Each structure stands twice: as C-alpha cells, then as structure tokens.
Amino acid sequence: MEMSLTVNYLTNFVMIGKLLSVMKKSGPDCRILVMSGFTEEVAIDLKNKNYSGSPSEFDSTRLTVRTKLYQQMQTGAMSRRFAGSNGTIN
Questions:
Q1: CB crowding 2-41: b at 16 or more within 10 Å, else e
Q2: C-beta separation of 12 from 34 below 8 A
Q3: How many domains does the chain have?
Q4: Which residues, in sequence order, are CB contacts of 66 under 8 Å at separation 6+?
Q5: pLDDT tens digits for 15-38?
Q6: Percent residues over pLDDT 70 in the chain
Q7: What is the C-alpha radius of gyration for the chain, rounded to an integer number of angstroms?
Q8: 61: domain range?
C-alpha cells in the first residue's frame, strides 16, 4: 500500500472501528472528531485508489490531497451510520 493512503485513510478506518464499541458503552454525547486538511479540487479515481504508476510520475501532494478527500467521505458515511446513537462522528 502507498504510505499516504495507509496513514490518511486506512489507519483512521481501523481506529474509528475500534472506538465504536467503546462509544456504544459510554454515556451520552460521545464524539469522534476527524481532522483533515483542505482538499482542493481533485478528481476521484476509483480505479486507482492506491498509486500504481511510474515512480518518476508520482505526485505526492496530489495523492495526499486525494486520500484526505477519501477520509472526509469516509467520515460522512460513518456519521450517517452512527446517527441516532449516543455519539457523533464529525
């Protein structure tokens, strides 16, 4: 896996997954806040989420911004799934 995808997206997914069971047992008003930088206009490339091109053409800034966008989309989806419970994910 490319490092930006692993750090910015997959680790958050695993960490939030582990926190959900703790949140469900906790009192009201539990929160998970996911911090992310500003994502510029980036085309979503669903066929190539993990960079597989030539090393000479690797654009780390573009890939990092793309993984942050994935992170924001993931947070929105988790927030909708967790709605109506004792906590929020933002």
A1: eebbeebbbebeeebeeebeebeeeeeebebebeeeebee
A2: yes
A3: 1
A4: 42, 44, 45
A5: 888 888 888 788 778 888 888 776
A6: 81
A7: 15
A8: 3-89
